[in-house]
Design goal:
single chain; 552 residues; alpha+beta; five-stranded mixed β-sheet; three-stranded antiparallel β-sheet; globular
Length: 552
Amino acid sequence: MGASTSRRTFLSLAGLGAASLAGLGTLEGCSKKPGSTGTATNAEQASAVVPTSKDSNLVAPDIKGIRPMADGYVKYPANLVDAITEKAITSGKPVTATTPWWGPAPPTSNKYVEAVGADMGGTITFSVQDGNTYGDKLNTMLGARDVPDLTCIPGWEISKLARFSDGVHVLFEDLTPYLAGDKANAYPLLAGLDTAAWKDSVWGGKLMGVPFPTDSPYPTALFVRKDVADQRGIAAPTDLDSLYEFGKKFTNPDKGEWAFGDIFQEVLQICGNPGSQNGWFKSADGKVLHRYETPQYKRAVEWMARIYSEKLIHPDLASSKGGDVVTLFKGGKIFSYATGLGSWKETQREMTRQGKGFNMQAVKVFGADASTPPVRWGGTPSIMWTFIKKGLGEDRTKELLRVLNYTAAPFGTKEYELQNYGVEGTHFTRDASGAPKTNETFTKEFANQFIFLGGRPAVVTSDPDLPNYAQDLVGWGNDATKYLEKNPWEGIKVEVPTEQAAIQQPTDDKITDILRGRRPLSDYDKVIQEWKSGGGDQARDFYAKVLADNGR
């Protein structure tokens, strides 16, 4: 979803008509329009409108996460709690919902969805959309003001939507009257969600969405095919030089093998680049800078350009036609790529069932060299939100909040088991320890429908297919926490200024052209200067003012 399209969408949502749009002119002309220079809301100012916290966790962890890493659970609880005894849906009306999914579309006739809906007391009608093009779907829905009862919007899509802080109030219900403070007692499981995630759900002083708290503070990790690396005696990389050697050893075009997918986001962190606020940071001397302006960024660009030029990245991924990186990784066509930690479990589970010894592991965090410590980028307290359609009336809004209260059931409840594993005998059996072991019916029908519909207290769980998963992920995360970036804007919800939003993607595209050899490395300084004059310097002033206004 392009910046200009998104901007037009949300200007229209905010009630600005064609005359206002016509007056915008080019992207560079947007900065003088109301609100287009960005907004910032301090999370502490949101304290009055979020629920009073109530701990809903039921089971002591097997592996304690070092915060902000979530706790891990190796053993499945022997006795589950029935957390919700009354039906959430009482009106008889179906609940419509739109959620993303990065996998095959689930069937419309779906026993899994039917079972969870029946436990809630009604019918949930999902529109499950391709996660790769979810932004386009949202753009169409929001532009037409045609939203379902419940809309899931990931944070990375919100970040593309200029003026979202205006548009959110036009389409979605203000939840403050229902959930602020002790009013959330009517929805005790929602009150069990992380307070920081709730504070992250406030736009314009109003509580506008129900958060999905993250189970890991890290947006990405560098993954390798450890099973193949062990077979070939190739050690995991520990610095940039050994990462290059890893690439050389794994690349053999005659056998249809290349080392890497795109690993640029990881290389940026390996080289010590900041990631908070789209790359903005505060230097030791107090200046606000962007990573584009640092030698660490240029080093990462130069290293990646070498990797592309030596053809260590799969040609489908290096070309404009693109390719499915997960399929290539599973098929032994590439052996390392960067992706979100959330995909680890699903990819490993699928391949484990095939019984071929597939072992996907996150590489222990390392720096570019002995004198360059890595930086691990942190995420927001929540990774997506569910919004309730505006204007449905008090009774329906409360009913939909009961649905979201149901999805917030924590690990150790019957409701959690049903949402995560389906129906025993239909979607899973139990192993000797009593843990659910899902089957092909589950794989066919499950598309994270209820998981993406609303958040629950974050945990990392193993299961019979993946007995080491919790240990592996929490262990990796606890180590990575040592390198977690200090974010000077922590606790402040910043909406990117329009000009910065407009120039970010074109600048990244120019950098991509340099990485892939379509532009020479000598163009780097020119690209950065174009970014600065095109809105980067203005964005710097904005971010510096946000810090100053908040006493930082």
